[in-house]
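Q&A log
Question type: sequence-to-structure
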Amino acid sequence: MSGGILPDRDIARLFEAGGIRAERAFDADQIQPASLDLRLGSRAYRVRASFLPGRGVSVADKLARFSMHEIDLTGGAVLETGCVYVVPLQEALALPAEIRAAANPKSSTGRLDIFTRVLVDGAQEFDKVPAGYHGPLFIEISPRTFPIVVRPGSRLSQIRFRTGDAQLGEAELAALHAEARLTSAPDANISGGGIALSIDLKGDAGGLVGYRGKRHTGVVDVDKRAAQPVLDFWEPIHRSGTGELVLDPDEFYILVSKEAVHVPPAYAAEMTPFDPLVGEFRVHYAGFFDPGFGHSPAGGTGSRAVLEVRSHDVPFILEDGQIVGRLVYERMASLPDRLYGLDLNSNYQAQGLKLSKHFV
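Response status: OK
Response body:
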């Protein structure tokens, strides 16, 4: 197996070989071109605060100390905003020595402002699974804006498997951009191992530039598509005369990149979630971009990146065209059998500004 991110067929083989274990067979659409969706188990634990288990300590040991209440998810249960929950996942791992993994929220999870991080036994970092890990997987869930309904099998996070050094260096990234045009920017800004994306605050023909999440809403069922009216949960934001937007630290925003993004089939990409060099705000919760995202033969013409934006401790002014994040590209170990887009009837191919699939 060559170095890079494992594609869909290798993820399936890893499951067949026992490297991924599950309480039941995979769902038909659970394996993505470069990742595997992770499913919630039947119990959730309300905990006092977020935690890392630390070297040599299991998540179960920490739950025994910090759990306040156990919740049965069978039949559906509401997870409240401002609370932290830990849920054992249906999948567990017995990775070969050369394979490591990393997790990230799914796109729809990020667009609902659900903060999720995957935990493993002995972890000293969130969302990282060391090479050769044998053990269970857990997910920490903290809804930030909307209360949510989840149940066993709900899929909020996804995991990528890697071998070797998959990330492109700056020279490789520049060469790939020259060959395949990774963004629509006239002059690509490539530095720090990634390609820059900027914010669009001019908006569409009607001046719509984004959405701000409302407080004190109803619940969002994470498994139901097109079930909630947009205006019950979101306040539209229109272009200002100055082309600026002040981010309030207490608010959550859905915005969009000025550039269209292209991820060629032999590569995958990930957006850096926070870069203090460009401002005190977090620009993306769900950072995985699959092979074929914005790729014309896969049904796209370049897709803009929808950004889940939350300021940190102070208000922050964004201006149209300001750099807000960087895309890091990685090699696939081999081409996936299916690409993001037409092959998968993907939700966000050829997108502009778009809320999650739960709203209509």
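Response note: Helices lie at 8-16, 59-66, 107-111, 170-180, 230-233.
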